[in-house]
Write a structure and sequence with these properties.
Blueprint: H1 6-11, E1 21-30, E2 46-60, E3 63-68, E4 71-75, E5 81-85, E6 91-99, E7 119-121, H2 126-141, H3 147-176, H4 184-192, H5 199-206, H6 210-221, H7 225-243, H8 248-254, H9 260-271, H10 275-285
Antiparallel strand pairs: 1-6, 2-3, 2-4, 2-5, 2-6, 4-7
Helix pairs in contact: 2-3, 4-7, 7-10
Length: about 290
């Protein structure tokens, strides 16, 4: 079916019907055995990641969630983010950089509202999403690039964003029906992660046994509750190193580590460089795609 009112339809999704601009289309395989990918951000564009193989943990600012094959991850402009593999086999994904995105009722270059969540399962549209990403990648890397192929990539990018809205609506409908699992554990850890927590204290606070809590959380989020707390603290430390000039000792205390030496050792082991080196690195390269 051909819509005669295409411009009007576009206006339902994009302010004044203005199409976003696709800046880049990458296909990546991330394996921590090769390198440690740090949190990074882009001030002037947003990003869509589609995981087509493997599994990982997605982190953006205060949000952390598991990501598996078939998931779409949304990154708003200005926020630090990273997708890390869950196991040694790594995680494979398409990454699409988009500028000039003016979704109706949202800030420039924002794909989602915080309350709506940053992960969208493609579900039964998984093959459609994968086909769009693969075609965008193929056209973008081709040696025969011309105005026609570039326009096709832009139109496919707009189509992907429209499809994202439809998928987000489906997810919200499922959540209203109670399909979403128990999030009390993660909510509790997100509220108290800077405190002196143990598996026992968390289990007691929520009325679970330690065994049930540990198995449930790992099955749902791909890591143990205490490892989540550790990574949550270090992610916050990375944000503070990027966005403030606080001394490392102050940052350590703010995220729950009174012993600065222990914090520096732990940060270096997990991130692959000291907090001071990380601050130097991210201040210089935070805008790099």
């Amino acid at each position: 079916m051909i819509w005669k009112d295409t411009n009007q339809k576009l206006g339902e999704y994009f302010q004044d019907g203005a199409l976003p601009a696709v800046l880049s289309v990458d296909r990546r395989h991330y394996d921590e055995k090769k390198y440690k990918f740090l949190m990074h951000g882009h001030e002037n564009f947003c990003e869509i990641t589609y995981v087509y193989q493997g599994a990982g943990i997605y982190r953006q600012g205060m949000d952390t969630c598991p990501a598996a094959a078939g998931d779409l991850l949304l990154y708003n402009a200005g926020g630090l983010h990273v997708t890390q593999p869950l196991n040694e086999s790594g995680v494979s994904y398409y990454s699409i950089g988009i500028a000039n995105l003016k979704k109706k009722g949202m800030p420039l270059n924002h794909l989602y509202r915080a309350q709506d969540g940053c992960r969208i399962p493609a579900g039964r549209y998984r093959q459609d999403v994968e086909n769009i990403c693969e075609e965008m990648y193929r056209l973008s890397e081709g040696r025969q690039k011309n105005r026609g192929t570039e326009l096709t990539v832009q139109l496919l990018g707009a189509a992907l964003i429209v499809l994202l809205d439809a998928l987000a609506e489906r997810r919200q409908e499922k959540e209203k029906k109670g399909v979403q699992g128990d999030t009390r554990v993660k909510d509790y850890l997100d509220r108290h992660y800077t405190e002196d927590l143990s598996l026992g204290s968390v289990a007691a606070g929520l009325g679970y046994s330690e065994t049930h809590l540990s198995h449930f959380f790992k099955r749902t989020y791909g890591e143990s509750p205490m490892k989540y707390v550790r990574n949550r603290r270090l992610s916050e430390a990375q944000l503070l190193l990027h966005s403030t000039d606080l001394q490392v000792s102050r940052i350590a205390a703010k995220v729950g580590y009174e012993n600065t030496s222990y914090f520096v050792t732990l940060f270096s082991k997990v991130v692959g460089m000291t907090p001071a080196k990380y601050r130097e690195y991210v201040k210089k390269d935070v805008h790099r795609l």
